[in-house]
Amino acid sequence: MTAYVHDSTFFTRRTIVLFAIIGLHVFIAWALATGLARRAMETLAPPIETHMIEEVKQRAEPPPPPPPQLERPPVEVPPPEVAIDIPVETQSTAIQDVTDRPVPRPPPPRPTSRTGVSTGKNFPNTQDYYPPASQRLGEEGTVNVRACVGANGKLTEDPTVAQSSGTARLDEGALKLAKAGSGKYVPATEDGKPVNSCFVFRIKFQLQK
Predict the structure, then answer these.
(1) Residue 43: how many CA atoms within 13 Å on its side-chain side?
(2) Alpha helices in the chain, H assignment, sequence order
(3) Most buried in the list 9, 92, 160, 194, measured by CB within 10 Å?
């Protein structure tokens, strides 16, 4: 048979550790029961104190009063001195400026001598342009024709009827007569020089008896 030999030293060490653990638990339980742990905690960490601080409201102070306005004394301005110059009549023989006097206007130019247009001696005969139909029907009348004549005695434009005779055939015969007279008019003159001008002349158609 095998015999086990117990080490008394090992048994004694384990027993001491076991008793130490049991004693520590017993001490902790006793400390909790008696409040020792609470006093130790209060000693290590003092309780937190809170203080309520009331906010002090600042009152809005009224604005300072405006500075007093000082009245300025009125400034007296002396009236301006008005000097009136009175003209003094003086008699002097010196030469005086008379530019302010009205300048006499020059006399108007003398009217230019002017003559109007007329028909010359070789102007066509009225009977040569008397419409044959009007002669057969016994139509008579007077036509006023307007013609513009240049300095050379020729027409510058076609003549027109200024006043009708009442018959288209007689009006047409008068226009043909006026055109046939181109170059045979006597032009108008100004100061003796021929100029362009327009005039109205009468052409009368009358049956010969």
Answers:
(1) 6
(2) 8-34, 36-44, 132-137, 168-180
(3) 194
Q: Which two tokens stand for residue 67?
A: 């500075």
pTM of the model: 0.48
Which of 143, 136, 134, 152 lies closest to 178 in space, CA to CA? 143
What are the helix and strand counts (H, E) for the chain? Answer: 4, 8
Pairing of strands 118-119, 197-205: unpaired
How far, in Å, CA of 147 to CA of 124, rounded?
A: 15
Place of tokens 């384990």: 14
Q: pLDDT tens digits, residue range 55-113?
A: 555 666 777 777 776 666 666 766 666 666 665 555 655 555 555 566 777 777 765 78
How would CATH label the architecture of 114-205? 2-Layer Sandwich (3.30)
- Written as one letter, the residue type at 36 is L
So where are the chain's domains?
8-44, 114-205
Closest CA to 203 of 179, 174, 183, 180: 174
Integer Cα distance of 153 and 149 in angstroms: 6
**CB contact set of 165 (below 8 Å; sequence gap of 6+):** 141, 142, 143, 171, 174, 205
d(CA 177, CA 15): 176
CA 45 – CA 102 distance, rounded (Å)? 125
